[in-house]
Amino acid sequence: MTQKHEGEKSKIELLQGIDPREIADSSLRQTIEILLNIIEELNAKVKKLEEENQKLQDENNRLKGEKGKPDIKANKTSGFKKDHSSEKERKTPREHSKSSKNANIQIEREKILEYPQSELPPDAEFKGYEDVIVQDIVLQTDNVLFRKQKFYSASEGKTYLAPLPVGYDGEFGPGVKALVISLYYGGNMTQGKLLEFLEDIGISMSAGYLSNLLIKSTVDFESEFNEVYISGLESSTWQHLDQTSARVKGINYTTNVVCNPLYTVYSTTLKKDRLSVLGVLQNKPELDFLLNQLTYELLDTLNIPTKWINQLKLLPQETVFTESEFSFLLDTYLSKLGSQHRTRVLEAAAISFYHQQTDIPIIQLLVCDDAPQFKLLTDNLAFCWVHEGRHYKKLTPFVAYHQKILDDFLTEFWNYYRELLAYKDSPSQKKKLELESKFWEIFGTETGYGQLDERKRLTAAKVSELLLVLEYPELPLHNNPAELAARTMVQRRNISYATQTIEGTKAWDIFMSLVATTRKLGVSFFKYMQDRISQNYEIPSLGNVIRDKYFLMHQPESWLEELFWMSG
After folding, report:
1. Residue 105 gets which letter from DSSP?
2. Do the bridges between strand 380-383 and strand 321-322 make them parallel or antiparallel, or are there none, so unpaired?
3. 561, 555 Cβ separation under 8 angstroms
4. Where does 64-173 have alpha helices with state H?
5. Sorting pLDDT into bands at 50, 70 and 90, what band is 397?
6. pLDDT for 170-186, tens place per residue?
7. Is 170 helix (H, G, I), strand (E, B) or coil?
8. Which helix (H) or strand (E) segment is 47 a member of?
9. How far apart are CA 449 and CA 513, in angstroms?
10. Are 511 and 185 in contact (CB under 8 A)?
11. φ, ψ for residue 265 (rounded to 5)?
């Protein structure tokens, strides 16, 4: 390094350690703040150029038949610079209380263990028993030779054969079928490992039969999936919504997640746009369209030129169109409508139909991130505070002064988050006004750190969505349940990579939804599968379980106490 470069580096290091607040001269202080922000901008540009340069070098080496720079992950990350999680900051420390793990264990048998009398002293007195619960499992086959009675009627020329019990088709009983489906969808095992496991315990199953069992068994469960979705939507005016990427036969798809505390539903679509999300919310692949007053209000919001709106008003109003019918009208009467404006018209007409249909409950409020495809679908949106916090965690200040400003801001951010949590438990008009005022104190005040101030301005623009909880205290402050559900599907994809057919994708959606929902409802997925395959139906439909739990959750505490004493 030349002497000139060393001198420039020392100047930057000197500036980096300066705290502008200690400078009395306001003009000089302002100049230093500008210089520090310029350093941050240049540092960010250098990082970006280094990353782009490395990618170009890797691509150049690849074209030469060589390998690029290996992507070696560090053992651990230090500080907040690489860790975008907010788990530590937003968690409020609570006193740990240990509960008994034996409370929910079902006892199958009891056995008295006797102490050898020969080893007891003469004066030993019997003092009862000390109970110890030991959990174990027995894995053994239950292979049955069914001898089906066979009769022949000469007069009818017909053979009569005793049928197999329900659930025993295809040479396999309901127990092994339920186990296989549970381990694949609930335990994230691969088909190859399942075959190995079955062979180890003495079950001979072909790869083809296993694949068909996992993919083509959805017919009996699709109706329950649909009932779960409807009951889940009925159980709350708000729903979580998130998306994650998916692969189907090598093509990029999107898996949508809709959930609340009582259920989770997955739905995979080819696209992730607003029209696709509308299809998910209605649980149907084909959309319907409607031109009415709401359509034109939405088109105005979407900045569609007046001339197109006027032409749309000449088409049949308050009439439901299928996608092909509505596309024909647009092709015929608005043939010069640009592709972007056409998409907006389709979205507005589809949203209008959604809000007047009665086939599925209409979601009034979505808890989600600020992705554009989620906007305008419902009356209100509540944005995720955790997602908003990640934007700030991604800032990587180079200047020590800016580092300190960011640290202080993050502390203030999560303290405010905790105040919102406290408000949810005990809302009041006074506290609401205080929190509204404090929001602007936090996000409307400049710090002098340019990148942070720009990020704060973006947050301030979302004030209505972030503070909707002040109007509806029952709303969650984050979208973590949907994000965790999306992560579960990502884990499934990482294990099995991708589905190869639309049928397989549908099976993933249905069974993964049933796995997630049974776990939320406290129902064993394995026992549920065994019950349904055997057609015993001792376990109520999951839709009914959702409705029952919703009913109990919304009863006054005095009523629940009375019910408890009556049942006792």
Report:
1. P
2. unpaired
3. no
4. 87-90
5. confident
6. 789 999 999 999 999 99
7. helix
8. helix 26-63
9. 45
10. yes
11. -130, 135
SS3 160: strand
DSSP string covering 81-100, please? Answer: SS----HHHHPPP----PPP
Query: Could you identify the residue written with the tokens 């018209």?
Result: 345
CA distances from 65 to 35, 71, 405 (A): 45, 18, 47
Gap between the Cα atoms of 348 and 191, Å rounded = 44
Task: Quickly tell me which residue has 């397989």 as its tokens.
Answer: 504
What residue has token string 């989620």? 374
Number of H helices, E strands in the chain: 22, 9
Q: What single letter denotes the amino acid at residue 8?
A: E
Side chain identity, residue 312: L
Q: 525 near 514, Cβ under 8 Å?
A: yes
Question: Phi and psi dihedrals of 322, rounded to 5?
Answer: -75, 170
SS3 of 307-326: HHHHHHCCCCCCCCEEHHHH
Q: Whole-angstrom Cα distance, residue 40 to residue 182?
A: 52
pLDDT-based confidence at residue 415 (cuts at 50, 70, 90): very high
- What is the b/e burial string over 44-70, where b = at least 16 CB atoms within 10 angstroms of the residue's CB? eeeeeeeeeeeeeebeeeeeeeeeeee
- Residue 441 token pair: 């104190």
Residue in the structure block whose two tokens are 């001198």: 7
d(C-alpha 354, C-alpha 377), whole Å: 9
Q: Are 518 and 502 in contact (CB under 8 A)?
A: no
If you average pLDDT over residues 349-375, what whole number do you get? Answer: 96
Can you read off the two tokens belonging to residue 550? 């919703």
Q: How far apart are CA 519 and CA 228, in angstroms?
A: 13
Does the pTM of the predicted model rise above 0.90? no
Cα–Cα dist 480/387, whole Å: 9
Rounded to an integer, the average pLDDT of 46-52 is 81
pLDDT at 17: 63
Beta bridge partners of 383: 368
DSSP element (H, E) containing 76? none
Contacts of 361 (CB under 8 A, 6+ apart): 230, 233, 234
Specify the DSSP class assigned to residue 164. Answer: P
Tokens matching residue 225:
């999936």
Sign of CA dihedral 172, 173, 175, 181: positive
The CA distance from 183 to 139, in Å, is 14
Residue that is written with structure tokens 């919304």 in the block: 554
345 CB-near residues (< 8 Å, 6+ apart): 299, 304, 308, 312, 330, 334, 337
Give the residue among 430, 450, 427 at the shortest CA–CA distance from 438: 430
In the three-class reduction of DSSP (H, G, I as helix; E, B as strand; rest coil), residue 71 is classed as: coil
Structure-token pair, residue 553: 């959750």
User: How far apart (Å, rounded) are the C-alpha atoms in residues 354 and 360?
Assistant: 9
Distance from C-alpha of 515 to C-alpha of 513, rounded to nearest angstrom: 5
Give Cα 49 to chain centroid, integer Å.
34
d(CA 464, CA 470): 10
